[in-house]
Design goal:
The chain has 117 residues and is of the alpha+beta class. The protein is built from three helices and seven strands; from the N terminus they run H-E-E-H-E-E-H-E-E-E. It is 20% helix and 15% strand. The protein has a three-stranded antiparallel beta sheet with strand order 2-1-7. A hairpin with a 7-residue loop joins strand 1 and strand 2. The radius of gyration is 18 Å and the shape is elongated. The chain starts with 8 loop residues before the first helix and ends in a 20-residue tail after the last strand.
Length: 117
């Protein structure tokens, strides 16, 4: 059974104002929970990136697409848009405190093509 501890008023205020980094593809903005609860401002892709076939990087896809071996044009599964297109849905941000961001969590940021390699 999970044990949940209640936050004090001061902890809740700090939590609501703490800067967070949105981890949703296509958004990746900094936000506070206070802003997040007030408005739907996260424009992101809820799907996954489809490379056109399995086991290759985005760089390989872009090089190979003009040649052969690609089954279909690489796209987001949610909207079939290209990699660098703005997110297709608007919702709430989902992320972690900026203070806990490390290079291992998100080495490259969208829309950098290396983000999916």
């Amino acid at each position: 059974v999970a044990h949940h501890t209640r936050r004090t008023r001061e902890e809740e205020e700090e939590y609501m104002k703490e800067k967070r980094y949105c981890l949703r593809w296509g958004c990746e903005k900094v936000f506070t929970e206070q802003e997040n609860q007030a408005k739907l401002k996260c424009r992101h892709h809820p799907g996954v990136w489809d490379f056109g076939h399995t086991g290759i990087t985005i760089k390989q896809v872009m090089e190979d697409f003009t040649q052969q071996g690609i089954l279909w044009k690489p796209h987001w599964t949610c909207c079939r848009a290209e990699w660098d297109k703005e997110g297709c849905v608007v919702g709430h941000h989902k992320g972690i405190p900026v203070s806990k961001m490390t290079p291992e969590i998100r080495k490259y940021k969208w829309p950098d093509l290396r983000a999916q390699s």
